[in-house]
Amino acid sequence: MDILDLSLCELSAAIKAKKISSLEATEACLKRIEKTKGLNNFITVCEEEAIKLSKRADAVISSGGEINPLLGVPIAVKDNILTKNIRSTCASKMLENFIPPYDATAVAKLISAGAVLLGKTNMDEFAMGSTNEFSAFGAAHNALDFTRVPGGSSGGSASAVAAKQTFGALGSDTGGSIRQPAAYNGVVGFKPTYSAVSRYGLVAFASSLDQIGPITRSVDDALVLCKAIFGKDVRDGTSADVSLPDELSGDVKGKVIGIADEFTEGLGEKEREAFFDAADALKKQGAKIKRVSIKSFEAALAVYYVLSSAEASSNLARFDGVKYGRRAESYTDISDLYEKTRTEFLGDEVKRRIMIGNYVLSSGYYDAYYVKALAARTVIKREYDEALSSCDALLCPTAPSVAPKIGSEPDPAKVYLSDVYTVPVNIAGLPAATVPFGHIDGMPLGVQVIGKAYSDGDVLSVAKAVERARG
Ligand code: GLN
User: Fold this and answer.
1) What is the pTM of this model?
2) Shortest CA distance to 271 belongs to which of 418, 463, 462?
3) Does 135 sit in the ligand 1 pocket, CB within 6 Å?
């Protein structure tokens, strides 16, 4: 049997039972990464570091030390999550040579749990995008069809998990960047409740929406990664302790699963069919399906692009050629330095977001756009909370379609529309998991389970029921 066919949990058990060494698993991943490097999923592969960490894990195992579920397990990390002494570029020319002096808390926790860091995955520049085409290191490809996008912005992480280059990966999700690429590649993705994972060392895009979370091949695998990275961190004042169960029952008997009419109104026929098949599968396992309504559903997209761009324009002001990152070679004075540096080293999409952000925050438009979006955010949050007060979870498509072809959509505003199902979850700060369910033309669709804030374990448990039904 091929090591790479094992799930993270299966590999963990095999390592514990000394049937497979961490070094063997790590070498198998590195070989696969090399063999399938055309996917362009990694910006940096840290081969030496990975071998070193795997040998260290094997030493712990042979000495009979305490065995954590992640001990010796190879993992990949999105390139906007900082790794000490390992280049972290955010897929931007701006940070092309940036070597962080510290680990993000989530990474430090993985390493101290004994995980083996394989490398840093490709993404849309500064996590802004839905297709991975906005990477300064070239587009990554979908693991199931080379001609299609892997989704974004955590496209490299999702494609790497699907291509079995790694047993799991970390992504970040500001408006869907874990869930949408996971759906496009037929794997599991989970965005935790806002605050469950420390954002320390995650390069900020929109701080009130950003969350780190896992991309894996099974729901149980996602739980293992969550257990390692969750927890309050003194370095992130917004972080909190969110509890998780040791195991997921996947039992939905008697659970009320809500479906908002608005979720399915714009869906194509085949997508709709697959979505309701997932709902039926939960019903067969004893869940009750309840129709609910979330009137603000569509407004969330506009609210998201106003708020996330406003926050991005502020967060990215630090990339000015002075503090860190690259600096233009010649300039006349300080404003010329800023201008040349930012013109040269930031990509078009990032510039677009900064311009949108500055526009909605400018004195003439602040009330009309930014303040209005903040007010709408409260309404959206209230509607989701209300729907969830009478349901255990909501079921929602993850994306309107399967992964599109690379280069097929030149209009950025149309690409934004593909985030319609994922962004409300970030606006409301809720946990949501995507599980593959159904296919169109051989490409997977995803279905999303959305839960109440801090009910991350329940969300994963319902997701496990969906996964079980899929077989
Ligand atoms: N696709 C969305 C955007 O472009 C979401 C990105 C994200 O979650 N990081 O903003």
Assistant:
1) 0.98
2) 418
3) no
